[in-house]
Amino acid sequence: MRVLVVEDEQSLASALDRGLTKLGYAVDVAYDGEEALDKAGGTPYDVVCLDLNLPRVDGIEVCRRLRADRFSGGIIMLTARSGIKERVEGLDEGADDYLVKPFAFSELAARIRAVTRREGSPLDPVLSTRGLELDPNTNLVRREGVSIHLTPKEFELLYYLAKHEGRAIPQEELIERIWDERMNPFTQTVKVHMNNLRRKLNDGFEESMITTIRGKGYVL
Ligand code: CA
Q1: 64 C-alpha to ligand 1 centroid (Å)
Q2: How close is the Cα of 17 to the center of ligand 1, in Å?
Q3: pLDDT tens digit string along 159-203?
Q4: What is the pTM of this model?
Q5: How far is CA 73 from CA 45, 120, 214, in A?
Q6: Could you tell me the distance, in angstroms and rounded to a whole number, from the CA of residue 77 to the centre of ligand 1?
Q7: Tens digits of per-residue pLDDT, 6-37?
Q8: Rounded distance from Cα 7 to ligand 1 centre (Å)
């Protein structure tokens, strides 16, 4: 799940970045409206958290242009208490929801879950395949009924592979969908996460669930 945080207030932007990253989302930050449109033009975000009062291009205009460009992810506006007119305008321009500042981080997390469920993206109900059961609401995994404890990132990896079961997924695709722009495409991060994931999944089982196909990628 990729999230774009658009917020010109640095301290709030980095708090949201840290919090959402901790939940396992791939987070990018834009500090003005123009940067937001640039980033959204090149990356298929699942959700945009959009401050309305922004330098260069304001949030309502960002929202309008995103929808005009057929952006299909969720848009959650972050607004001032007094901004009723803006909120209505934003909803009219295609925003899905809004939060009034200051808000609790847990509330933003809940809105993101709700919006992405509505959009039908990764946070679907439990996914089960080949003896595996994945619950994206709790990050709980079971293999043949045995609980497996995964980090949020490992869960996202496994969920992505399970959703595309039988298809070899190249490392670049995993980086694009699960990490964010700070991720160096030449790092060992995917490999390291994949090794940990495999170790946890295979613990106590004979058959390995994830196969590496040389030059093609990983397949479940
Ligand atoms: Ca602002």
Answers
A1: 17
A2: 16
A3: 999 999 999 999 888 888 887 766 776 678 888 889 999 999 998
A4: 0.64
A5: 6, 10, 33
A6: 11
A7: 999 999 999 999 999 999 899 999 999 999 99
A8: 6
